Amino acid sequence: MGDKSGSQLGESGVETRKVIKGTIVQTVAEVIVILPRIHVS
Length: 41
Fold this sequence. Notes:
Layout: H1 2-40
């Protein structure tokens, strides 16, 4: 039982990291797109 719950926690942790990484990448990409517009204006 312990091994199963441990692996489940590990998998959910990996998924959470993927989601966080994806969110950070999206935010960075948006900032990179927005920054030039701010400098122009």
